[in-house]
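Comment on the following before class.
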Amino acid sequence: MSGESKEEIDRRVRSAASSLGLEPLLERKPRQLSGGQMQRVALGRALVRDPDVFLLDEPLSNLDAKLRVRTREEIATLHARLGATMIFVTHDQVEAMTLGDRIVIMRDGWIQQAGGRWTFTTGRRTSLWRPSSGSQR
């Protein structure tokens, strides 16, 4: 964001904070934030930069169940609003099925299966994909 005016940076920060419900945290230091708040701040920092592609590596892993559901909904809404590509890394099948347009199952760095959600609900599945009611951890 070099070259941007301080006013433009401030506008973007406030816009990202507003969309993620982070306004009350703007004056806090990082050590004063919970793990979940730190993850939301990291997402806000990425939003401010306005990237074409987001890489979200286990962004919900440190959240309790209630906050995980709410944040999952916020990410889905954000994705729809921005229209940017989001690569969402997770071990949780519910997150994959809820947020993924395309899902890739990997093992030891190799793609085992890829496809749309329907591939995993109606088609042949790799043995790595097991029906579950929650996290695979």
Summary: The first helix runs from residue 6 to 20.
